[in-house]
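worker-03 picked up job from queue 'complexes'. Input manifest follows; three sequence lines, order preserved.
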Amino acid sequence: MFSLILSTTARAIMPLTLVFSVYLLMRGHNAPGGGFVGGLIAAVAFAIASLADGVATARRALVVDPRRLMAVGLALALASGFGGVAAGQPFLTGQWAEVMVPVVGKIGTPLVFDVGVYLAVLGVSLTMLFALSEED
Amino acid sequence: MASLLVLPIVTPLGTAVLALFLWRHRRAQQAVSLLGAAALLAWAVALLLSVSRDGIQATAIGNWPAPFGITLVADLLSAMMVTLAAIVGAAVAVYSVATIDARRESFGYHPIFHVLLAGVCGAFLTGDLFNLYVWFEVLLISSFVLMGLGGERGQLEGSVKYVTLNLLSSALFLAAVGVLYGTVGTLNMADLAVALQDPRVDSRLTLAIALLLLVAFGIKAAMFPVFAWLPASYHTPPAAVAAVFAGLLTKVGVYALVRVFTLIFTHDTGVTHGLILVLSGLTMVSGVLGAAAQGEFRRVLSFHIISQIGYMLMGLGLYTRLALAGTVFYLTHHIIVKTNLFLVSGIVHRLKGTLDLASLGGLYRTRPILALLFLVPALSLAGLPPLSGFWAKLLLVQAGLEAESYSIVVVALVVSLLTLYSMTKLWTEAFWKAAPDAAEAPLSAGEWRGLLLPVAALALLTVVLGLGVEPVLALSLRAAEQLLNPAEYIRVVLGGRP
Amino acid sequence: MDTLLAVLIGALYAAGLYLMMRRSIVRLIFGLVILGHAVNLLIFAAGRLTRAHPPIVPEGAAALVPPYADPLPQALILTAIVIGFGLQAFALVLFRQAHRVSGAEDLDAMRTTDSH
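worker-03 finished. Artifact:
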């Protein structure tokens, strides 16, 4: 069922939702937020798009296959754990570079981990959601 | 070597990620899966050797010291279990390449299989109760997917029961964790062992939590009376999946029971361990009687998992050095043998297209090697000397006599006899009697080799374990020693803190 | 407040288990979801209910200023919610598939492989 109101609103909401999800991801280390919520909010953006304009449109908007996102996310999260090992500390020990990047803040392996979680959550949710809605 | 503790978890996860990237390339996925399984086996053996040489090891994940952060700990039991998981993982990875169809592979069979292995290894290595819950869920959700993958009717119906009962068990586990944290304010298992010694802790509350965990892990381990989900589901997925489930998943539940009831809840052994002993006898009997009533190859085997779980719990219930060594040895023997029997059942199904005992037969004439390879694990399961099952049962019976628990010894011996009856039934029906329908699916020589290789390797391991029993027996006794005297475990985890 | 929460948790447990024991597959799902909520609230209640600051060290201070809330139960619940979300989403997909393949809404009808 196509609804002009929903479709127009969805298009307006989508960029806002995505920016908000990245905002949550970035502030997550010391404030409420983080990779998981960010990933879920990003998934919501595509879920609304799939409701308004169909799954095919949502898939096009995502550009990459959600399963690929899942793989990249898991790989990032796993790789971030080796930062500690490389520095001679236990697995997953946070390593920070002492540079401040504007907007993002301090750069370190926990951020890489969170970005990995963000992508993995987005990938998993969308894989399930698309599979469910494409059935009928 | 701290990184040895992380590798058995990270390797299968990394393998899964790599296989995910190769989503569309079947051959590459298979190669990655085999390599990952081989690497896991190598790390696991290295870990076992290292723990056996240098004693218990621990590493704090993220460098957050225990009891605040999550600790990975490997004592001998953990290291042995990881090694067994790796052996099963390697055997089933080879078998999967030969048997899993392209459709299941395209839905991500290989990555999920390795996530399952990561979950199992994580559960064996963690030293934190909540982290144990997380690993349980990791292995559960991957087992759910493997169970349902393929979408055949029987499989889905089996999955519904499997998923429901396991979710219930997880809810109970989580509730126990919550109440435990509310009571003593820690979830690190070594720290819990210390904290619960405090006389100010209400012992009735401790007992309630212990029983809640007994039920939660009991469901996972398929203990009496909460085993019904197992025979309702284990015969439905493909043989490779069923084999890894039969070999490893219930044993994770047994491991959790052993860990919790040797490290944390040892104040009121009269009640808790006495109850476990009674339940172990009932588990043995109900499993073996259930098996006697079945007429399908894999359902017979499924019921035998239950009765075998009873033997492992018997050692925990007796709670002596010899009995715990019996449990450890039994775990070792059972994981190898049970995986092998399910793999054999898969070959039988591949050849005859059915596992209904009435319509099977004649396989001894057409495939004598397969018949012999079935006999080794089957007779070992029944406990015939000199195979591994004989020694496992001998240890437990000896421990029972030493503890003067004669009734459980009688039960164990009778159940052992009934197991022999069951295995003889499988032998006559599937292999010996003349086939009602002589037709057999054709197999290419390469396919035959791929199917037989893991089965033969596991059978060889069973024989070696039986004939050269000394080293593993010594290892089991040392593992039992560590379980019975957790002071060393606690010291290593908490780093000298009292 | 503790009593009220205890009653609520008990009611959720009862409702969840009751729904799980019905034969309908839809009620089974609802039962599982409600049971999950009951457990999360139980952890919350077991971790003590307090009116306190968030456990964040204030700017310029060296340690936490009491009274502060224990962050761990909340972290446990958060993790449990995340895991529960994944499991329930999967269970939903699975049960829907089982319903489509077997055409039954009644759990008692799902026993085609139990006949042996």
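worker-03 released lock.
The interface with chain A takes residues 2-3, 6, 10, 13-14, 16-17, 20-21, 23, 59-63, 108 of chain B (CB under 8 Å).
Chain B has 21 helices and two strands.
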